[in-house]
Design goal:
This protein is of the alpha/beta class. Helix content is 64%, strand content 9%. It has 18 helices and eleven strands. A five-stranded parallel sheet has the order 6-9-10-3-11, with helices on both faces. A four-stranded antiparallel sheet has the order 2-1-4-5, covered by helices on one side. It has a two-stranded antiparallel ribbon with strand order 7-8. The longest helix has 53 residues. It is elongated. The protein starts with a helix and ends with a strand. The relative contact order is 0.09.
Length: 543
């Protein structure tokens, strides 16, 4: 429960006013429901008694009936407002929570991020956040509202009816209701977790089935993948059936508790009325109020079924958001700077260091190419320069300050993979420069020899599919380079920037980069002769 309370506090932080108003309306709805049924019971019994003793002609039926109508209409309107407030606030809180989770994920080390499957992680985050909508709506808000209403009913019924009636109603609901809910949570926790796990497995397998159906067909694995999806769905349905049964049993248990509370109130109230301590109409208030108080515990049956799912999601979300405070970092430099490696050593575990006492300086406007066979450390040098890796010894500096001391954006790294998103070409370019105008976008496209390609596809508003589908590998790489130009980086890091381009296009792209970024310090891992020829200096690693 501590994890769930932590999540609830996170959600309340940004939506405190709306959730507090929703909680107030929830309490008001419950109070009006109890008042409506209690008043109706009193009215019926009092009117009947007046008729039996011959005073019906002078009995005031108008004010009680008007109050009954007011409570009925007011309760409906209040319930509507409560639902709007709490659900709207919860949706906004969940949206903020998703942003918080993705931001926390971005602070993870490079080594952890490269082992992360983006689609799988996003699928997990979406499912976990969806599971947490029940934390305020079906757990804490109903629990707080129900508890406060029970306490208020205890006080009011002690005054209107009798303290013995009030206490037995309160004790039956709190002790009995708590026992039923705890039993249900214990019984449903494992089936709920199994249902969620199976749902995740089905979703992942189905996505793989849809996105990789051509490859699965070619290798004859399509029937096996379909069968795997069916197995996961069968598991989910079986676990969901068990959970639904436990939820119904918990609901039945809560109804029994309500019946016991109402029966006890009727028995005690009837005895007091028979003894002449209270009137029958007042005894009726206790009985009907006990029936109405069932609404204070009824919403908890849904939380019983979802508790295992919510606890698992809360644990993962808490672990992801529990990020230590990072030191305040300097703003990225806007003018020309030098990139410098001072006796840098880097290795992983007990293996031999990839780099040892590596020293290099790249001045503003200078292009330096890293040359050497695969595995010698060219990409490692670029990652160190980007601040994605931390050297074991030595320093990586921008001018005289460690690159790790700067905020994101101090350097711009263009890796071997072209990272594009679904949307227009302009959308992909403006990820680097949201305020850039069309003229700036076209200038960047000219620099990487993409104007003709973009015009043929319909211009800047041409749409790309998932992961940039619609462009060839070389076109996608050039679009990423155009995006790097728009950032106007002081230090540009390139990992085999012209891979997949013909010689003429490669020369044109490299010349365009130099023309658009004349003052940038450029360090690139270079395999091709065109890349090495564009450099002012070549550094051979592993020699």
């Amino acid at each position: 429960m501590r994890k769930l309370w932590h999540i609830f506090r996170l959600m309340v932080q940004g939506e405190r006013k709306a959730l507090l108003r929703g909680l107030a309306l929830s309490i008001l709805v419950l109070i009006m429901g109890v008042s409506l049924l209690g008043l109706s019971g009193w009215f019926i019994v009092a009117a009947s008694a007046a008729g039996l003793i011959g005073t019906g002609a002078v009995f005031d039926v108008f004010r009680p009936s008007a109050m009954v109508r007011f409570l009925a209409i007011g309760r409906t309107a209040t319930r509507y407002g409560e639902r709007i407030l709490t659900h709207d606030a919860t949706l906004r809180a969940l949206a903020k929570l998703r942003v918080t989770l993705l931001s926390a994920l971005s602070t993870r080390s490079h080594d952890r991020l490269i082992r992360l499957r983006g689609a799988q992680a996003l699928n997990r985050i979406v499912a976990d956040v969806d599971a947490l909508d029940g934390v305020p709506l079906r757990l804490f808000l109903p629990l707080i509202a129900g508890g406060m209403t029970q306490l208020l009913a205890l006080a009011v019924l002690s005054w209107l009816v009798d303290w013995r009636v009030a206490v037995v109603i309160f004790a039956t609901f709190t002790c009995g209701g708590l026992a039923v809910v705890l039993w249900g949570i214990r019984q449903a926790r494992q089936p709920s977790r199994r249902a969620e796990s199976a749902a995740q497995a089905f979703r992942s397998r189905f996505i793989d089935l849809v996105t990789s159906r051509e490859d699965l067909t070619v290798y004859g694995q399509l029937p096996d993948q379909v069968a795997a999806c069916q197995v996961a769905e069968t598991r989910r349905q079986a676990a969901a059936t068990t959970t639904d049964l436990i939820e119904r049993q918990a609901g039945a248990g809560l109804m029994v508790i309500s019946a016991l509370a109402a029966g006890a109130a009727l028995w005690i109230g009837g005895g007091l009325a028979e003894a002449g301590e209270i009137t029958p109409a007042r005894a009726a208030i206790g009985f009907f109020a006990a029936l109405a108080l069932m609404e204070t515990v009824a919403p908890l049956r849904r939380s019983v079924a979802e508790m295992g799912r919510m606890i698992g999601a809360a644990r993962r979300v808490t672990e992801l958001t529990d990020v230590p405070d990072l030191p305040e970092r300097r703003v990225a430099p806007s003018g020309p700077v030098s990139l410098r490696f001072d006796a840098v050593t880097f290795g992983r575990g007990t293996a031999a260091p990839v780099l040892k006492d590596f020293t290099l300086s790249v001045t503003p406007g200078e292009w330096v190419a890293l040359k050497g066979p695969s595995g010698v450390g060219k990409s490692t040098v670029l990652l160190l320069a980007a601040g994605a890796l931390v050297p074991g010894a030595g320093r990586v500096c921008l001018d005289d300050l460690d690159v790790a001391d700067f905020a994101d954006g101090a350097t711009t790294l263009v890796g071997q993979r072209a990272a594009l998103v679904q949307g227009s070409l302009a959308d992909n370019l403006r990820l680097a420069a949201p305020e850039a105008g069309d003229a700036e976008l076209w200038a960047a496209l000219d620099a990487v020899a993409l104007r003709t390609v973009v015009e043929a596809k319909g211009g800047l508003e041409a749409r790309l599919g998932p992961r940039g589908a619609g462009l060839s590998g070389g076109e996608a790489r050039r679009l990423v380079l155009a995006r790097a130009i728009l950032r106007k980086p002081s230090v540009l890091l390139l990992d085999e920037p012209t891979e997949g381009l013909d010689t003429a296009t490669a020369d044109q792209v490299l010349a365009g980069l130099r023309r658009m970024l004349p003052d940038s310090a450029v360090l690139m891992a270079a395999h091709r002769a065109e890349e090495q020829g564009a450099a002012d200096r070549i550094v051979t690693l592993g020699a």
